[in-house]
Each structure stands twice: as C-alpha cells, then as structure tokens.
Amino acid sequence: MAAFPLNHVIESQQFDRDLLETVFRTADQMKADLSGERRFAKALEGRIMASLFYEPSTRTRFSFESAMLRLGGAVITTENAREFSSAAKGESLADSTRIMNGYADVIVMRHNEAGSAARASEISRIPVINAGDGAGQHPTQALLDMYTIVDAFDGIRGLKIAMVGDLRYGRTVRSLAYLLTKYEGVEIAFVSPPVCKMEGDIKAYLDRNQVPWHEETNLDQVVAKVDCVYMTRIQKERFHDPEDYQAAAGQYILTPERVRAMKPSAIIMHPLPRVDEIPKDVDDDPRARYFEQAQNGLYIRMALLYLLLSK
Amino acid sequence: MAAFPLNHVIESQQFDRDLLETVFRTADQMKADLSGERRFAKALEGRIMASLFYEPSTRTRFSFESAMLRLGGAVITTENAREFSSAAKGESLADSTRIMNGYADVIVMRHNEAGSAARASEISRIPVINAGDGAGQHPTQALLDMYTIVDAFDGIRGLKIAMVGDLRYGRTVRSLAYLLTKYEGVEIAFVSPPVCKMEGDIKAYLDRNQVPWHEETNLDQVVAKVDCVYMTRIQKERFHDPEDYQAAAGQYILTPERVRAMKPSAIIMHPLPRVDEIPKDVDDDPRARYFEQAQNGLYIRMALLYLLLSK
Amino acid sequence: MAAFPLNHVIESQQFDRDLLETVFRTADQMKADLSGERRFAKALEGRIMASLFYEPSTRTRFSFESAMLRLGGAVITTENAREFSSAAKGESLADSTRIMNGYADVIVMRHNEAGSAARASEISRIPVINAGDGAGQHPTQALLDMYTIVDAFDGIRGLKIAMVGDLRYGRTVRSLAYLLTKYEGVEIAFVSPPVCKMEGDIKAYLDRNQVPWHEETNLDQVVAKVDCVYMTRIQKERFHDPEDYQAAAGQYILTPERVRAMKPSAIIMHPLPRVDEIPKDVDDDPRARYFEQAQNGLYIRMALLYLLLSK
Predict the structure, then answer these.
(1) Is residue A274 annotated as part of the catalytic site, yes or no?
(2) What is the mean pLDDT of residues C279-294?
C-alpha cells in the first residue's frame, strides 16, 4: 500500500475518492480483525494519543480512545483542556500544541472554535485529528457516515439521500455533503423547517460539483423515494417561539408509519444522540442503521490512527 | 471451574452461597498472584473496561480501574457521564449503553438513580457491573465486606455482627444484610439513632431467611458481645436539628474505650471514608480491618472482572 | 548503579550534587532511548501510577502520565481529587493515601496546600512524588530547569543567571534557587518589580551557601551580562492598581531588542505557560530553550519514575 498522504485530518475536503477508498478498505480490515485474529492488536504499541477536549464529548472521546487501545496504543486524556489553554492562563493554542508534541504521538482535538484544529496542525510535528471544531467540521463523523452508506449499497451510483432536520447548524450534514460529491450519480433532498435550511455555501459547492439537490419542507414527500434517510435533531434554541418549535419538530419525526413507506432496501441513519426524532419502535427495523453507524466510527478511527501512525 | 453463571453484576441478591465461594476463592487467587508470580498479569490483555460514572466517586473508580489494569486490561473513563447521558442531550440510558457496547468489553456504571444498572444490563451484550446506583445497591461493596468477614473468621457460623450508624440511608449495610442471609447462624444487632433505623424491607427479608436481629440505640450494650462491629458515618443532613445531630453522632463513635471492651478476636469494619466515627488512635489496633477491607475491594473487583470476561 | 536512596520526591533540598548527577544521567538515557532502541519501553510494565490532582494542571499531569506510559506503565488519574479528599466527605489526606497504596505503585500528587505531599509521604509505603503543593515546592520543575541549564553549558562553573518577573510568588524560581547552590561559581541576579521581590528565606539560604546574588529592577542592566535569562510571568493579581501592573509588566518583557543584546552563548528559559513576557518572534532564536525545557520534563519524570520504581 502506498504511504498515506495526509499528515493531519482536519476537514472532509482533504479526502478524494482514492483516499476514501484507502480509509474504507482499512476500516474493513479493522472490523474483520476485531472479530478475527487480532493482527492489529499491538500495531500501535508504545504510541501515545493525547485526547485534548476543550469541550467535553464523552462519546467521541471514547470512540477515539477505544480505537487507540484496540490497536495497542496508550492514551492521555482531558475533558478539561480549556484550563490547559489560553482561556485559563493566556497561553496560545500554538504553545499548547508544541508542548503536547513532546508528550504524545498524535493529538485528537475537540475545540469550540472553528479553525482551531487547522491552526494546531500548522505547527504540529505529530498528526492532529480534528474531533469537531465548533461550527466548523467533524471529518471523522463524515467519514463514518460515508462508510456506512458505501457499506450498505453495492456501489452508490444513483443513490438518493434525504437529509432531514437541522441542516443549517448541523455540522454533520454539512461535512457529509462535501464527501457525497466524490461519488457519481448522487442526489440530495434537503428536508427541513424554513429556519433550518441548508446554507448557501454547501449548495454552491454541490452545484459546482454537479450534484443535484432540492429542498423540501414535507418529509412525507420524500421518504418513499430515497435510499437513505439521514435524520438529525432539531434544536429548540433555533426557534424564537416555543410553539413554532413544537409544530416544526413534530413534522420531522421518522414515525413507524413513515418507515413503512420507505423502500425495503433503504437505510435510516442518525449521528446520535437522538431525542425523539426517531421513536424507539423503529430500532428493530432492519433498515435502522444508526447503531451500526456509531460502531463504524470505531473502525474509521482505528483506520485513521493506523494510517497516520504506521507510515 | 464451571463457567461463571452471571452475565452482569447488579445486586447482592444474585449471589447464592456457591457463587460467593467462587468469587471469594478467585479473589484469594488474585491476592496471592499480586504478591506472587503474576500469572494473571495479562489475563485480560486486549480487553477494554468503560468506567461510566454519572456521579464522581474517585475511590470506587480507582479500585475498579486498578483491578482492570492489574489484569492487563485497558480503561476508558469518565467522571462526567451525566454530560454523555440523557441529562445533557436527552439521550436515553438505553442508547448510551448500546453505543458503549461498541467501544468496550465491560461497563462499570455508577449512577444517581436506583435501577439504572439493571436497566442498562437489559440491553447490554457486554457485562454491566453496578458500582452504586443511588439509593439502590452497591454489590461489589457488599461482596468485599462479606469477603473480609469470611476471611477473618474460620467459618462464620455463630457470627454476631453489629451494624452501627446510619442504617436507614446507608446502601452498604443494606446490601451486606442480604449477603449475610446466605450464611448460617449469623445474628445481627442494628445500632442506630431512632431517625436512622434499618428499614422494614430488610428486617422482613431477614425474618423470611431466619436470621435473628434486634435493635439497639446504645452502642455500649453491644460492643463487648459481637464478633464484628461494622461502623458507618451518620450524616448531618438526616437531622432536622443540628443539636440532635451532635448528641446522636457522639454516641456512635467507636472510641478507644469501646474498642478495649471488644472481644480480642473481634474485628472493626468501615466502608470508608470515615470522618470521626472511628478515631485515628484505633487504626493501630489489630482488630481494625477497614484498610484491609478497602484493599479487599481490589481483589474482589479483579475476581469479578476475570470471571465475567474470561468465560 | 547504586540503589536510588530516595523513597519519595518532595522538595528540591533532597537532592545533593551526586543525586542530581544520577537523575540527569538517567534522564540522558531516557532521552536517547526514546529516539533509539527503546530498551526502557517495558521497564515499568505492570506498574500503576496514580495521578492525584487536587487542583487541575493538565500540562504537568500529561508530562507525568506520558513518562509513565513511555516506560510501559499504566495510569489511573483524576483532576478532581478534591472530591475524593477531606474537602468532600471529611476524609483525611492520610486515609486517602493509605487507600491509594492499595491501588497503585506510585502516587503523583498536586495539592493546593503546602506540605501536603510531605504529609502523604509520611504514611505511604509506595513512593509519593510532589507535583506542586500550593505555595510550597514543585521539585520536578526545578530538576528539569537545572537539567536544561546543565545540558546547555559544558560545566556550569561561573554561570550567571538572571531570574526575571514574579520572584515572590513564583514557586519555580524558589525551587531552582535551592538547586543552584549545589553548583560552584554560580551568580544570581533577581530582576523584578519591587512588589514581586524574592523572599528573604531564599536569600538567606543563598548566603549560607556562598552563592552571590543581587537585585535589580531594570532588565536592561542585566540581559547582556548573563548566561541564562529565566523569565516568569507577572500576575496582575499581585498589584493593587491596574496601571501599576501595566507599567511593571511592560518592563519585564524579553523583547527582540533585549534578546539581541544577549550573549551569543546565552539561553532563554521559561517554565511556561507564557503570556506576552516573551514575544513569539523570539521563538526561532537559537537561544530560546523553553520548549526544549518543557520537553526535558518528560525525561526527568521518566528518570524519577524509573529510579523510584525499579529499585
């Protein structure tokens, strides 16, 4: 295998089709290995990952830390990095990053400010992986989403996907949209209340990359036609009027009735955590893939850590 | 050895006499191994324990994590699981548990709500160990208490034990009472201020299991007669009137005078942390076993992790 | 090598010249090993370090934890030890320490009260390393500082060092002053605003040990004459009047102009984090050693852990 060309994982746009295939094939290997002969159980023995979470996200942190441990590596971790950072004593992110270079072999960084991971990567000699930077990106989430889609369909040419819910503030759907442009024949339906519409920058990017998209406000118009329903949570804070929220949220619930209308071959995704936008009764439907999707995060993160550190 | 029959450790009542013997014999092995040839040093290599503490308890967490590490396993940990949970984003404990199933091989859960660990175990494919659930149970504490008693006496038939202090709200003494019914010839004295009396459910359980018990308010009536004095802390919050508290607390201190009145073969236990209910001067008395008791927690937790994970 | 004579690392004064040489030679070995054949990669396999931080200090904690992991050891950790301690439930530091003795092989303790680490070491059967105790000491910082100086100069006889900034409350410069007395021919210039002067106890200690020192308020009088400029941060809280602070702080900045006035062979140190007392432009100057200094903390801590635990 050719050496992995990336030094850091900062944003979805770094990944072209070849690179995606490399990551996904490696994730396949990791998945097989975990229930198989554990050839990778000590692949990163002696290596240290620093989890630098400037805001807590136990789920994402655990996913990365489990990935590192499954490869035989070790972890130093904080959910409290803000104290370590400029916010506490006025230190710059650059200084913090240089210091961490002395203690670890890879940095996984969650930060509240967009662009933080990119700035850290500029001065880091060790790989930086962006685990979410504010309103910016969350590229490993996008990769695990794309991996789940690719895994579910034998070739995704002609795939129709509906992204549902909060498309304006949802980092997840934005990052996934970038990756979808790498595949041919994809069509996207953006389904959201008017206040949560997908932003213009993504639409323009899709246009430039010849990805057809259209907008809907009515979920019922869409569920029967698509191969993938990607649900997201609508946050109450987006609405001025609580009644508007109640009205809106109710329309973007994937009820069992709506699931029944879906194609037999279609899949249901959600970045989790969910609240009530997918009722529990749907969990046993074979089309529900959101727990598998979360599990795929482990394989994707194992793949990235392995590719970045075993060069 | 027959396969360990439990999939999860949720409450004391799961343990019958045979199971207790299995756990205690395995704890003996762990204790011997730690100062011996370390045959178990890599017994759980490659396995991951998730410490999910919805409320912090550094002592209990460290005891479990040390146990896992001593067996060669690895740990992902949070003292901040509430953020990860429904409380933060509205996610259900069920969803959190399913996600954790993808990242770890065993879950150790401390939760503020009684019944949480049981609910998690219902949907978990990996073992769940209850590390304390609110007013509910703390079974590994009960096991280490029972182990300490069994270890101290060559056969516990005829054992007289005094439980002293806050018996009403003390999860520890409640869980231990369940286990004591598994042994024959045990007698219990409940010694407490009137506001902190043992609850009726435990008394009824003891009656059904033919375990004689009686209540006392005067510690001096009891110390000379029993084989084990199990002290607990009386919490100020239980009393409406601070003066009542002062008066009560003073009567349930195991002073050196009271220790002198104890049988030479008797033992003193305490789940720790203590405040002043056992003065420091007592620590050097050979009957003081509370630090050994805490240490036994390590062996018991190693035993449980080993039995649950090496099936 | 003779057995390391210390059981605990509590304060700088424990180290005489021979002991410093032992620690520094071992640190040299650790440094070489990390980029070499990794002979020490499993030196502490099976050993557990407990990071007991009663106040958070992610940087120091990570440095110790990385050191332990680089030696193949494992870590149990809390940034939240105050909850575990007397402050939360009234438990004494002595009890907490005894409990930790059952879970770990070495304790690294950061505490807000001076003397805490010493008190813990009095009852601990396992080594205690002081990682900073309030206004007290931070001996591993002093060791890494001294190591950086010794490493930079081929024999430090005749070394002139300027300590700049907050000398009154800066634990770092106080601890380093103790160690400097172990070397011959050292001269110290204390450069600070009048409100942040070095305390009398240190000056008396230097006098007793024949170490010449003098005080300055003007940094420009000093920079050209010394071999080492040790910068520290001046904290706003020390000043009653914000304007006084602004005036003072401005005078203790190591500007590029001042750096240009320094000897070509001199070095610039800082315990980090810095705010603006060393501008970023200085970082690329070959005399800037503060990032190397932080990195040296890893080697020193690996050396101490190794020396304490492999006896």
Answers:
(1) no
(2) 97
- B255/B260 Cα distance (integer angstroms): 9
Q: Which domain holds residue B277?
A: 140-293
pLDDT of amino acid B169: 83
Residue A26 among the catalytic residues: no
Domain assignment present for B310: no
Q: Are B299 and B147 in contact (CB under 8 A)?
A: yes
Are B134 and B113 spatial neighbours (Cβ–Cβ below 8 Å)? yes
Is residue C288, in this structure, part of any structural domain at all?
yes
C45/C104 same-domain check:
yes
Same-domain check for residues A126 and A248: no
Nearest to A139 by CA among A297, A270, A259: A297
Structure tokens at A24: 């996904």
Catalytic residue flag (residue C174): no
Order of strands across the sheet that contains A213-216: A213-216, A187-191, A160-164, A228-231, A267-269
In terms of domains, do B144 and B287 share one? yes
B107, B84 in Cβ contact below 8 A?
no
Cα B129 to Cα B109: distance, rounded to the nearest angstrom: 6
Q: Please choose, from the candidates B236, A89, B98, the residue with its C-alpha nearest in 3D space to the C-alpha of residue C237.
A: A89
Q: How far is A152 from chain C (nearest CA, A)?
A: 39
CB A91 within 8 A of CB A85: yes
In angstroms, the CA A268 to CA A281 distance is 13
Q: What is the pLDDT of residue B85?
A: 47
Tokens for A303, please give them: 């793949």
For chain A, what is the domain count? Answer: 2
The two tokens of residue C244 are 């006084």
Q: Are residues C201 and C114 in the same domain?
A: no
Question: Chain C partners of A81 at a C-beta cutoff of 8 Å?
Answer: 58
At C196-211, the pLDDT tens digits run: 899 999 999 999 999 9
- Is B52:B81 a contact under the CB 8 Å cutoff? yes
If asked whether residues B116 and B207 sit together in one domain, one would say no
- The answer for residues whose C-beta is within 8 angstroms of residue B204's C-beta and 6 or more apart is none
pLDDT of residue C18: 96
Regarding whether A280 and A303 lie in a shared domain, the answer is no
Do A40 and A115 lie in one domain? The reply is: yes
Residue A16, in any domain of the structure: yes
Q: Which of B25, B39, B59, B311 does the annotation list as catalytic? A: B59
Q: Read off the pLDDT of residues B1-25 as tens digits, 9 standing for 90 and up.
A: 568 999 999 999 999 999 999 999 9
Residues of A in CB contact (< 8 Å) with C are: 46, 48, 50, 74, 76-78, 80-81, 83-84, 89-92, 94-96, 98-100, 102-104
Residue C6, in any domain of the structure:
no
CATH number, domain with residue B68: 3.40.50.1370
Residue C52: beta bridge partners? C78, C109
Residues of C in CB contact (< 8 Å) with B are 46, 48, 50, 74, 76-78, 80-81, 83-84, 89-92, 94-96, 98-100, 102-104
User: Which chains are adjacent to chain B, needing at least 3 Cβ pairs under 8 Å?
Assistant: A, C
How many CA atoms does the CB half-sphere of C161 hold within 13 Å?
A: 29
- Same domain for B277 and B145, yes or no, is yes
> In angstroms, how far is CA B130 from the centroid of its own chain?
11
CB contact set of B261 (below 8 Å; sequence gap of 6+): B220, B223, B224
pLDDT per residue over B170-199, tens digit each?
Answer: 888 999 999 999 999 999 999 999 888 999
Give the pairing of strands A267-269 and B160-164. unpaired
